[in-house]
Every structure is written in C-alpha cells, then in structure tokens.
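Box S2. Input/output pair 1.
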Amino acid sequence: MDKFLEMQTFATVVDAGSFVRAAESMDMSKAAVSRYVADLEARLGVRLMHRTTRKLSLTEEGHAFHIRCKTLLSELDEAESEITAHSASASGLVKVNVPVSFGILHLAPLWSDFMAANPKVTLDVTIADRFVDLVEEGYDLAVRIGNLPNSSLVSRKLASTRMVLCASSAYLKKHGRPKHPAEIAEHAVLAYSLLATGDQWELEGPKGKVRVQVHPVLRTNSGDTCRAAALKHQGIILQPSFLVEEDLRSGALVEFMPNYRSVVFGIYAVYPSRQFVSAKVRLLIEFLAKALGTAKWCDE
C-alpha cells in the first residue's frame, strides 16, 4: 500500500479538475488514477469527491483532506530537496533495459558521457527487444518505443520517431515507384515481424487512413536486417526514422509516397514508481531526455 502515492494522486485530480488531466500530468493511465483514488476512499471509509461525467466536486471530508494532503506532500518535496542538496553526487548501480537496434545505434554512444559526468554511478545495461517486467526482474529503468500499454509504471517521453516507407533508388528504378499504398502489395516487402499490425501496413493519406496487405519476401525480428536487405536493393521497408535517417540523408534509401505517412511512436523512459526516485535514476532520465530531445530523426 502506497499511502503517499494515493494522496498525491488524489491531490493531483483535485488540482487538475479531472481524472484525465491528472493522468496526463502524472504520466499514468486514467484507470490507474481512478484505482488509487478509489483505494484511498476505501481505506479511509469516506467519500472524498462526487463524480459526474462533466465535473468533480469535493465532499466536506474531501476538502479537509485535500488541504492536509497538500501540506504533507509539500513537506515531503522539501525533505527530498534537502537530502538531494546534501548529497555530493549520485552513486550506486542503475540497472537499465533498452531495445536492440535503438540501444546499439543511439544509446551506446551516450553511456560513456553519462559515466564521465557521474563517476560514482555504475550502469548495468541489458539490450533486448523482449518485454521485461521491471519490478519482477529488478530494473530501475527501461527505454521503450511505441504506444505504451496502460500500467502502474511511470513514463517520461524522451523523443519520438516515425515509421518511414522507403527503398533504394536502384530498386525503385527497376521495379517502379508505387504511387498509391495498394501498389505496395505487388512489390517485394522486407517485413519486421514484431510490427504490431503484422503484415497489414497502415498509412495516413490525403483522404484518411489506408491499409494494405503486404506479402513479405523476407520476414525478420530485426530492423537492422530489413535495412541491410533494402540497402542491397531487395525491396521495400517500413522502418523507424532513427534507423534509416542517415540512409535517407545520404540517398542510399529513398522515401516514396511522402503524402502517405505511417505511425509516429514515442520513445519513453519507463520506471516502476514516481515516489522516491533515486538521484542516480533521476539524473539518467534527465540526461537521456536532453541527449535525445534534439535528435535529427526526432520528427513528427
């Protein structure tokens, strides 16, 4: 039972005026926010607020409790700031999980800079595309790409990446450049097998969403493998901008049908709880946000 998180959630809902805005403010799901407030009311045995589809209003008990919550939470923030101010530097082990391609291409060059700035912090970085359980497996932080599922985990957006439809100019010259998504079905496709929509690619065009069923000549769980085959003129790929941006800049790969855009994914730092986040984890999150926020491929 996390009494402080229940209190923080309740106070945020009251201050924000709605469960939806509170969820956005706390980087939680609306379901998680509702659950924390409901658990708080159940534990106290009183109703703290009246809920309607249009507005929230505090009960007499809720008004009094909100004032006490704000006082206690403010004192907690002051205590944390005081402890942090008296700490010479962050120290200890941070266990991190990151996705393979993104981890190698964009995060691997950053670790040394972080370690140089924080010599008392030790990093344990695991590179894997599987979905790890942060709490069960003891991770302090994970970097995840995509649409995050509803969970009790806390997230901080670091950057964004869009999926790009592209191929080599040699392939397009030989086989023709598709002018409509439906024509992709007639082409050699190099497919990423972990794509959420599978072999049905979704694009947003001038007249709305278009779906096309592709027929891969290569299917792999490695975006790097798709990219390598495309660079050898073997077909069309739909891959994230963080992976193909340099190829697009050099002309090795060409984006076609720019009027049809695919999904934009967020890149997030995910951690188990907002409460009592250690200085070393907080520093790493801030470092990653600053390093990735201005990336050339971070476009929407």
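Box S3. Input/output pair 2.
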Amino acid sequence: MYYLLAMAPQGGEGQGGSMISTLIMFGAIFAIFYFMIIRPQQKKAKERAKLLGALQKGDKVVTSGGIHGSIAGIDEKTVLLDVGNNVKMKVERSAIGTVVKSKDESAK
C-alpha cells in the first residue's frame, strides 16, 4: 500500500518544479552546444576570412587541393597562381588552404 502512495503524483507543485528544471536543463544543453561547437566555428570562419582578405601578390600558398605556388595576381574572387616554369593557374580565392610564406615574412 505504501508503494502505491509513493508513486502517486504529489499535486500541482511537482509539475511546476519539473517544468523549471526541464527548462534549466535545455538551457544548459544549449549553452554547452554554443561554447563547444558554434562559437569555435564562428571564430575559425573569421580567421579564414581574414586570411583570404590579407592575400597579397608574392605570397606563397597551398591550395585545398595541395597545389603549391606563389600569387602572381589577385582579382575580387580569383587568384592567379604561379606554380613554376612560367605556368600560371587561375583558382578561386576560397580554394586557398594556407599561406606558407607571406611577402612580408620573406623580406625579413
């Protein structure tokens, strides 16, 4: 008999406390997702945009496809890469993966 009384709902107060704890739990889960997933991705995207915006003629770069070259010319959306032996390739600016050596660093 005691077992059945313990399983019975305790009234209206139990429902309100349950709702608040559920909202707090969802808020905590959202905060964890924000700080562990969303925020780092936004930071990485800003760094990449800064890298692509700072490209200059003469920078040595590697494309996302693995092609090494130096920048011979820059347009709004494309980059002209000099890959050696007077061979030039036109690639999208977004295809630049990393800057190996910038023009400023090579002057030092």
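Caption for Box S3: Residues 12-53 form the longest helix (42 residues). The chain has two domains: 12-51, 56-107.
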